[in-house]
């Protein structure tokens, strides 16, 4: 049989004390002429009442201890819920950090690949200077005369244009010849004017 709870013990003891008290009062209130043949009833009832009172006090003390334990448990449950919320926030932050880090690692790998590719296909600074001079000599740094704001054409070379040019094709030997011819055209323009 399952052990009874502290509450049930208290209620049972209170009922027992009530019954014993009633019997004791009845025994004490009856006139002495009508006393029962065994006069030890009132003494036994008093001893039983004292015994039940001691049991009640012990059970009340147990109930107080259990109430304190329950209070500690309730406080611990509240603390656990707080920690659970903090853990959930930390998990979310870690997941966000993981996403950011994986994106950063992916981008870093792409940049390293680009750097390795650039190192494999090096272009000398002289060729870059020659190409820049060619662009500036041919007035390619300015928008075409027919271009106006809102025009869908770009007023500068696109990536595709740059790849199809001298640097993109890897033919740098002709750059100096084109630059010279552009310089001659420019010089002839200045002479004629």
From TrEMBL:
Residues in coiled coil: 46-93
Homology family: Belongs to the Mediator complex subunit 4 family.
Lineage per the UniProt record: Eukaryota, Metazoa, Spiralia, Lophotrochozoa, Mollusca
Gene (name only): MED4
Protein name: Mediator of RNA polymerase II transcription subunit 4
UniProt entry keywords in alphabetical sequence: Activator, Coiled coil, Nucleus, Transcription, Transcription regulation
Subcellular location: Nucleus
GO molecular function: transcription coregulator activity
Function summary: Component of the Mediator complex, a coactivator involved in the regulated transcription of nearly all RNA polymerase II-dependent genes. Mediator functions as a bridge to convey information from gene-specific regulatory proteins to the basal RNA polymerase II transcription machinery. Mediator is recruited to promoters by direct interactions with regulatory proteins and serves as a scaffold for the assembly of a functional preinitiation complex with RNA polymerase II and the general transcription factors.
């Amino acid at each position: 049989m399952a052990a009874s709870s502290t509450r049930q013990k208290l209620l049972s003891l209170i009922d027992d004390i009530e019954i014993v008290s009633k019997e004791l009062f009845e025994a004490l209130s009856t006139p002495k002429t009508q006393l029962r043949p065994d006069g030890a009833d009132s003494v036994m009832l008093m001893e039983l009442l004292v015994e039940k009172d001691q049991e009640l006090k012990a059970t009340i003390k147990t109930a107080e201890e259990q109430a304190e334990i329950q209070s500690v448990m309730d406080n611990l449950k509240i603390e656990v819920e707080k920690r659970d919320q903090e853990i959930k926030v930390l998990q979310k932050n870690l997941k966000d950090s993981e996403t950011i880090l994986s994106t950063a690692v992916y981008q870093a790998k792409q940049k390293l690949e680009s750097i390795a590719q650039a190192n494999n296909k090096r272009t000398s600074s002289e060729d870059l200077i020659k190409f820049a001079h060619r662009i500036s000599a041919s007035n390619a740094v300015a928008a075409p005369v027919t271009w106006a704001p809102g025009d869908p054409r770009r007023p500068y070379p696109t990536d595709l244009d740059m790849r199809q040019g001298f640097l993109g094709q890897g033919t740098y030997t002709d750059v100096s010849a084109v630059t010279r011819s552009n310089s001659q055209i420019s010089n002839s323009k200045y002479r004629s004017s």
